[in-house]
């Protein structure tokens, strides 16, 4: 018999949704499965919860106390989940570090005020993950859950900063609860669902799905980026969390398998995803309209796009009850969105993530958190039915020497349609004309890229040169976020010499 | 091994839109053919599916070392030999 849905968030106010964990009756017949290089393991919710309480006792015995920061620099694995939930149990603040971006060290601990930093390998001053398997003193009692208030900070999340050191914002208990509650209003996860997560758990929003699985009574599969496509087929998820770069890859997989098997993309999609997908969740970066249409109309995989950022958490979301393809959806409960005359999207929240950065360059908090409003830096419009349409980043507008503003997104997307091109970033701020930095296979024709970019170009939007990037943007070189989003400033900085040369007309790249 | 090499060449060729015979076995896929990390995942996942090797048989270090067609052939061959042993 399937586990029955836990009691509705009942007496819990939406901002207090996480308090449901304190009274959880974890199920024996629901599973959390971890699929990572080296192996697959599963445990029931009940077993997971026993392990969480063991780790909570261990941390308490180690002297960790409410408000202490616990850093986690691990790939996706069971211990990540145990630490996170044990910290919630004790009132500790989890700081999730993406191991692709951060090198664990004593300096990192000092910079972010960590009491403990859990790492894959033993190193001076940090706690190797193997120590989590230590048994606490059998007589050591399990401390009670703390009484949280909405404004209590429970997790530190990081975002790229302008000077190299990552900015951090501390997410509040109330903001997480409110977001979880709003998502359930739209998607109603429950018994029979299998949630599928593969992005790094250092992203708090990925850990939301752990909380959802426990609170709503669903199965959960946690993979890694390397195992995601492999795990998808076997996991047969009903809900897939992804980002556009992943869905592009999934499309290629489906097309390849359809060709090889001589079947329709819809049949291949069922085989590749296990055939039980209720919907796929995309966010973080805009998804190409043509990709969205292909996934839904050709492959039969519903995709719901949304909008949010570290500083706001989820803001808008398409969902089965209100969806307009290409938009980012309507504001979720607890969020208010408006667009200023400058086109920049502003967000107000009933329970804000926070009202300042915990760690940032001087002035960064004041630029983003203005009174009760977050200045997102994204450009958009709200249609007559309340759907938000994202048109670009304020940062992505290039102001040419002649003062004309050029929105880069549409132009860059044209380059991606050329075979062999994986990335395109425009440059030209303060210059007389635009140039394009292109990451492409060695055989790709930059002349064709330029022709594609300049189809229907006006004199101002005409790109004069296509320059081959010295290396494609990756997380490792700091030019991609962990969710596959290009970091414009890092890409431009990495190719400053190439760009300078283009304007000095002393090279042999493709020219329009 | 020749059959495995052919499978690897064909898979790479399909994803990179090049001819199988033009692929150099020692070339780094990232720089020579513009493979992104996601495309590498796609390639290795597909090859595991084709050859019947479980992707989770490989460690993180194994996967990180699969940067060239030759390295991919080597790892798959080792795993097939282990499974067949």
Structural commentary:
The complex is a heterodimer of chains A (512) and B (85). Chain A is α/β, with parallel strands linked by helices. Among the domains of chain A are: 141 residues, 3-Layer(aba) Sandwich (Rossmann fold), CATH 3.40.50; 83 residues, Luciferase, domain 3, CATH 2.30.38.10; 112 residues, 2-Layer Sandwich (GMP Synthetase, Chain A, domain 3), CATH 3.30.300. Chain A has 14 helices and 26 strands. Chain A has a nine-stranded mixed beta sheet, with helices on both faces. In chain A, strands 6-5-3-4-7-8 form a six-stranded mixed beta sheet. In chain A, strands 16, 17, 18, 19 and 20 form a five-stranded antiparallel beta sheet that branches. Chain A is globular and about 75 Å long. The termini of chain A are far apart. The N terminus of chain A is likely disordered. With 85 residues, chain B is mostly helical. Chain B has a single domain, classed as ACP-like (Non-ribosomal Peptide Synthetase Peptidyl Carrier Protein, Chain A). The radius of gyration of chain B is 12 Å and the shape is globular.
Shape of chain B: globular
Largest sheet of chain A: 9 strands, mixed
Order of helices and strands of chain B: HHHHH
Protein chains sharing the most extensive interface: A-B, 35 and 29 residues
- From the coordinates shown, what is the CATH architecture of the domain at 46-186 in chain A? 3-Layer(aba) Sandwich
Shape of chain A: globular
Percent range for helical residues of chain B?
Answer: 55-70%
Note the main attributes of this structure.
heterodimer; A: 512 residues; alpha/beta; Rossmann fold; Luciferase, domain 3; 9-stranded mixed beta sheet; 6-stranded mixed beta sheet; 26 strands; disordered N terminus; B: 85 residues; mainly alpha; Non-ribosomal Peptide Synthetase Peptidyl Carrier Protein, Chain A; 5 helices
